[in-house]
Amino acid sequence: MVGLILSVGILAILSGGLLVAALRVRLWAKGRPANIDWWTGIAALPRRYLVDVHDVVARTPLNARFHMFAAGGFLLSLPLLLLTGIPGFSSPWLWSLAALSFIAAILGALLDIYRRAVLRPGELSRGGFARFPFLILIYALAMLIIASVHVLGGRLPFEALAPLIAVGLGAAALLIFGLGRGPLRHAFAGAVHLVVHPRPARFAPAPAERRGIASGLEPLDLDQPKLGVETPSDFAWNRLVGFDACVQCGRCESVCPAHDAGLPLNPKALVQDLVRSLDAQSPDYFGTPHTGIASSRPGRPDQRVIGEGATLHPDTLWACTTCRACVEACPMMIEHVDAIVDLRRFQTLDKGATPGKGPELLEELQATDNTRGLAAVRRVDWASDLSLKVLDESNACDILLWLGDAAFEMRGQRTLRALVHLLDKAGLDIAILGEAEKDCGDQARRLGDEAGFQRLAHDNIELLENRRFGKIVTADPHALHVLRNEYPAFGGHYEVVHHTALLLELVEDGRLQLPDLEGEQVTYHDPCYLGRYNGEYAAPRKLLEIAGAQLVEMERSGPRSHCCGGGGGAPVTDISGEARIPDRRMQQAVATGAGCVAVACPGCTQMLEGTAQPRPTVLDIAELLSGAKP
Amino acid sequence: MGSPYEALLRPLTIKGLTIRNRIMSTSHAPSYGDAGRPKDRYQLYHAEKAKGGIGLTMFGGSSSVSPDSPASPWNQISVADDGVIPYFQEFAARVHGHGAALMIQLTHMGRRTRWDTENWLPTVSPSPVREPASRSIPKQLERWDMERIIADYVSAVRRCREGGLDGCEISAAHGHLLDQFWSPSVNRRTDEYGGSLENRMRFGMEVFEAIRRDVGEDYIVGIRMSADELIDDGLSFEDCLTIAKTLSQAGLVDFVDLLGGQARDHMAHAIILPNMAFPVAPFLPLVSAFRAELDVPVFHAQRIMDLATASRAVADGHVDMVAMTRAHIADPHIVNKLMADKADDIRQCVGAGYCIDRIYAGKDALCIQNASTGREATLPHDVARADTHLKTVVIGAGPAGLEAARVLALRGHEVVLIEREALAGGQLLTASKATWREALTGITRWLVQQVQKLGVDLRLGTEATVETILAEAPDIVVVATGGYPSDGWIKGAELAQNTWEILNGSVEPAETVLIYDGLGQHQAVSCAEVMAKRGAKVELVTLDRAVGEEVGGTNFPVHLRELYRLDVIMTPNLTLTEIYGEGNKRVAVLRNDYTLEEEERLVDQIVLEFGTLPNDALYFALREQSANKGKLDLEALIDGRPQMASSTEGQFALYRIGDAVAGRNVHAAIYDAKRLCRVL
After folding, report:
1. FRET partner for A577 with CA separation of 20 to 30 A, picked from A332, A491, A496, A503?
2. Rounded CA separation A443/A217 (Å)
3. In the predicted model, what is the mean pLDDT of chain B?
4. Are B18 and A382 an interchain contact pair (Cβ–Cβ within 8 Å)?
5. Which of A385, A420, A606 to mutate: most B Cβ within 10 Å?
6. Could you give the CA distance from residue B377 to residue A627 in angstroms, rounded to a whole number?
7. Quick count: other Cβ atoms within 10 Å of Cβ B644?
């Protein structure tokens, strides 16, 4: 009798849940179509969940545990309860099994409650997700009592059990109806997201440090009537699924350099804003807001996301450095940066609303093919006494040195001269493109100017087509990323190597002797576009170690490294906050006590040198290895 | 974004030559020539600048093309025979090896040289007009002389090309033969080479046309010339511009290297080689006007000592190449420091004119503050780290002590630098009190900055005693305690003041003052100027033939100008023999050194300058406890070898440098310190 009621009740609730979910799916369907390999996605789901998601969740072991118990217990309990109503299945064994699932759910819920009430991590939201463990607790407690009665013989009168059944089913209903707008949506949207993920390459098997790396932006079809995302329905539908998967765990919030410096961007709030922009009936957001921005209002699928009276403040959009710390931290595999760039594309290409000095930079690019607005010859001014070979159609080289736009500035030139000095010492056959090199388009693309980027990409690819070289080496991780990961979509396929990787190779081959850095305390700052974007963490560290430097790691390093504030065009859009991102990063460097911050990116160099004194000296690895005093 | 100095680091291409940046050193005559050839010393001096990142270094100021323009005055270079070519080749290889371009200046000096040298040939000029500076009365050039000299120019340029030099400039500045033709102040000819500007230009045109014909279109030939002689009977701005335009438009010159002024007498020297009394880049506006009119690159040197001025000169389009010639004598590594973001570490020229003044006194060029310049072979600019790191104590933070501390710290030693006064700088603090001499403090300001950066334990306002020094348990003690004003052992000297008291302001000038200069250097003339400016009626008496006789050629004219303007009475050839009081007044007894007749002056105040005597009490107190008993191995010092190490446990080696040994000058103090300490 009790089993039948529970079974029917759960069945009814699940049917209701299905309906709620279907309504949510209808909302997702408002998004643009996406190319999805369903079968691969479905087949990959268990691995994506158990390996990729688990890897991220387990960085906080307590979370993995409570989730395993709560989710496992709850999910297991539903089919078991369904079975209890089927004659012949109901047995003390089944009830015992069910009891175990409830105990697991209770344990999980209690652990979560302990986390929220005792540990109280600041990045968690209140609201639905705060009530979530209590609902599970109530459901599981009520059901556990019922199950215990059945396990022990089931002699209690039905009247005594009825309130428990009501409470248990009520809690189950609240939980399951949350598939639409409640916390349980994460399970549904999360699972669908893993199947239809817009970057399936993220899940390709890879060594640990390269796992989860699929960082190149997707090309935008410039012939479309609308470029970029104006309204939620302009997002591909699987992106909308991704936003809905958010569990508001706040891991992105706690690693975001913009949020840390008090800029008006909190990636968790951003994703919630995107959820709310789709659905006017969204519940309120009870997490940390974007610093200095009043709470957002929900929108509708056909309403603008950005602007006056819309969900997102433009400053939020432009405060992002595209460092991917949020993406790297997200257990739900949400692609925050892609969303940011999609939104920026519309702002820049359609509205011309790039803020700060962004428009100037894009104009300079248009006029001069470089971000500095200088004559092309000035890219090679610094090398006039180095007799570097300039690659043309008639000659060839092993190593093509991609200079990047840092070559226009004294600071960048210093690094490049040091690098050329080292490569010369190793006797390599190097060459440059000279005046023919154009900006790789990184900043244009991150600022949303996809048209500008594609123009530069096509020009550079056409140029490289007509040059003979072995591989490309660059000291600029942004150029590395664009050439290695983004040009292939336009037909440019090259072996692109970061200078630290090449230098390490030379040292290991015995072709390059390093100076003695014995006794020097050095901390290494991972550039986002080398680390998180390309998974390269080891070579710079190894070089420093071989040279004898004492490497001290900052509070955040490697895949968890903290951005210098220089990516994504942030220095030109120049959204202000309570502090400056580079100052915050330098504080971490100062805390190590090291006398020198080793860097491997001209952007990082400039950002970190532009911080308040006294501070450690900032030197590129190439400079350190060519004898610059730390 | 970008550096304010970015404009300086842009390459410049002239014909086939790309100069890596816009910073250069103009040709000058450091007197490093050896038998008319640029040998190791000369080459290393320029190679150091090339190593230091300079774009173009030009050597051989006034290198001569003809036997009647002798190379021996100022130990110049003779390009009058092929024997010079191998030296050029070696020189070019050295400089090119560091990525810099190398050019030379060629000239016939005309009347601006001496006849009583190696060849004993008369000097020559368009007209036989005596030049005050060179003191020679020239022979008026005949037609065959002119043809001979044109041929000499052509051969000399060919030697430059064969020697691998990147180019050359023909000097038509400072009153050399070419501008002797141009300038109506010299050229009194009535033939086709005199009279109108076109006629006066004729010889120069013939020279350049002949050169171009012979050397071809691709070799770089420039001209050094004045933008305005700034004298009534000389070349005007318009004249100079016409000349520069004519030559450049005819394709005869590939660059024009400009300066303001001329050099026929003492005051002209002071102006054309402006010292610290002048504003920075005083002639830049003149040059800028040329650049606006010319189609070839413009070079310019004249008191551009800092990167901010240099960068402005280039970025704002006043010049194409900015010459920092004396700036490189003070610090040959300017460009490298700029590129390494260490511009703060550049030892900036203070404009003391010590380098050029030594040339005019017939000696070699040396820098008042950088002892290594011109001594690259024996005293490298960079200090090598020592293998063992010692504890060192330096007493006295004047130029000697500061340089000692700097060099010891660069060696890696632990350095304690103790100074009695609250400010570091020693006697330079006093010297700099004399109005336009203020920039002297730049010497010690840089040294103080460097020792602080190097982590020297600088203890100001601290009196060093034997006990406090020994308490540091030093391995080396360097006593650089300087000197105190000597009273010259004059009878009654206690009734007089000294120049220090006046300059430091501890004694007010009285109404009538007699300053007696027993030294002939800057001190007394400076003091006279300060006192006169403050209202005193000053008579400056000296035993020399003129006041400030030891002050160099670019400095004494400024002193004299100021003293004349202030109505200071200047009386030479008298020796002070005694001072006595008369009421509140003082009587100076003076004796004419030639007639031996005595005369007296009744004044309110007598100020004496006899140089310094060493502050040596501390040295003598330490001497007996030291391992070496204060002894200095002079041979080792000269050869750049280390002094005998102190071998005894618990004992220290003791050295004494600078005016604490004997009163000399800033360069001597710094040289003492560097050559001793770089090998300790």
Report:
1. A332
2. 12
3. 96
4. no
5. A385
6. 24
7. 13
